[in-house]
Design brief:
The structure is a homodimer of 226-residue chains. By secondary structure, chain A is an alpha/beta fold. Chain A folds into two domains: 2-124, Response regulator (Rossmann fold); 128-222, Winged helix-like DNA-binding domain superfamily/Winged helix DNA-binding domain (Arc Repressor Mutant, subunit A, Orthogonal Bundle). The first copy, chain A, has eight helices and twelve strands. Chain A has helices spanning 10-23, 35-45, 61-71, 85-93, 106-119, 153-164, 172-180, 187-202; strands spanning 2-6, 28-32, 49-53, 76-80, 98-101, 128-130, 133-136, 141-144, 147-150, 169-171, 212-215, 219-222. In chain A, the strands form three sheets. Chain A has a five-stranded parallel β-sheet with strand order 2-1-3-4-5, sandwiched between helices. Chain A has a four-stranded antiparallel β-sheet with strand order 6-7-8-9, covered by helices on one side. In chain A, strands 10-12-11 form a three-stranded antiparallel β-sheet. Chain A is elongated. Chain A binds chain B through residues 73, 75, 85-86, 88-89, 92-93, 95-99, 105, 107-108, 111-112, 114-115, 119, 136, 138-141, 150, 152-153, and chain B through 85-86, 88-89, 92-93, 96-98, 105, 107-108, 111-112, 114-115, 119-120, 122, 124-125, 168-171, 215-219, 221. The structure holds a DNA duplex (30 and 30 nucleotides).
Chain lengths: 226, 226
DNA sequence: AGAGGAGGTTACAAAAAGGTTACAGTTTGC
DNA sequence: GCAAACTGTAACCTTTTTGTAACCTCCTCT
């Protein structure tokens, strides 16, 4: 989970860093003190949420929000000392999703951040990554060395299992179990056909594989590509 | 747009009714003074948003929220006199989306309601753009390679969903969920018919589509046109 | 060298998924 | 109030995916 913080006040940065460290250490905080830099970071880093201070030294905070909204719908919380109603309305109408006034309370702040992230649709979309291979197990979309390869459901399950154990051998039983459940007699035959089909999709020469390798008597394993 | 208000204080009901009448007359306000009744109304009326007062006479407000969350993800704003931080956190963690303390300011209140609805349905979005395709989801008007194509409401929802995920596969479940909600048995049949109708409108040869492509076992995806 | 095991390769058929069409119930616009 | 448009259902057809089985190749062990 990536959180972009656009804020110039060192005290606030520290307070928020601390809050995340204590309450939500698995989140990555990307801080910047400049609004312009912030807009660029939204594009380059694709954060899951943006926290934007309206009182920046270089540019007007509303402008930053407007620029972000030109190309991104990233959830954005506005943070400011002003508690003026007109500002709140303006911020929300311009596309902010929430609004917190300083001084804020640590727990409320984090609760709002989490409530907003929960609302996001693709928030739980997880990718299986192994070296240069990236697989989206829900769609069966595999990216590998610039190519986009479409896998079927079964292929995707096998591939995900191999990638999650990337580098280590996976037994036939474990692989078959992940796809067909533990006791299905035909699995052995079916598996070798599916391995072939996978190799035809990902290997340069399917009969001389460099990625999905055989461990005779054991199972298969995925070699880390150079 | 339906707004369910669960509130017992006559003054607050009046204040909110007035705010809606003046600022947002096209919204329908459904008021109830009982928490239990409120839960039933969420089910029977399917409101677009719920405003829930925690200080109800018959039941505890948190219980009402919990009961609603058992079957519905409707956006919910909690309204209360308590400004105690623990309550705010508790409310948000239990699934509320926003929290406003009384006394509240009319404009801020409405801005928060609208911001919540907007991030719920993406209603604010004027245009969905993908490559040379431009879709106005509010009117169903689609421009594509010089042609102006009128889509029906359902078609437009499906198209928008595909375009927003342009290039990436979208699962049947996600597509159907976006149109008919999450558990509607007939969705699978209906979806394939709507896909056909869309293809008849946008494809040169609907039986050999180049834009709306199938991922068997997964769903559909929109190919980036050259 | 030959037998046996393990996995590879291919072809084909069954099953699942999706495509196509027609029709009927509803809603919408005049 | 009627015609047109929209939507969902169902029946039937086509394509894709999956599983099965036969045969092949390679390696090992005797």
């Amino acid at each position: 989970m990536k959180v972009l913080l656009i804020e110039d006040d060192r005290e606030i940065i520290d307070a928020i860093s601390l809050a995340f460290q204590i309450r939500w250490p698995e989140a990555t905080l990307i801080p910047t003190r400049l609004g312009q830099k912030g807009v660029e970071l939204v594009e380059s880093e694709s954060p899951d949420i943006v926290i934007l201070d309206l009182g920046l030294p270089d540019v007007n905070g509303f402008d930053v929000l407007r620029q972000i909204r030109l190309f991104s719908q990233v959830p954005t919380i506005i943070l400011t000392v002003r508690s003026d109603e007109a500002d709140i309305v303006k911020g929300l109408e311009w596309g902010a999703d929430d609004y917190i006034t300083k001084p804020f309370r640590q727990l409320e702040f984090l609760a709002r951040v989490k409530a907003l992230i929960r609302r996001q649709v693709g928030a739980e979309e997880e990718l299986v990554v192994f070296g240069p291979l990236r697989l989206d197990p829900t769609t069966g979309q595999l990216s590998y060395s610039g190519k986009e390869i479409a896998l079927t459901v079964t292929e995707s399950q096998i591939m995900a299992h191999l990638m999650r154990n990337g580098g280590r051998a996976v037994t036939h039983a474990s692989l078959a179990g992940a796809v067909w459940g533990d006791d299905y007699p035909g699995a052995a035959d079916s598996l070798k056909v599916h391995i072939r089909r996978l190799r035809e999709k990902v290997e340069e020469n399917p009969s001389n594989p460099r990625l999905i390798l055989t461990r005779t008597g054991i199972g298969y394993f995925m070699a880390r590509p150079e």
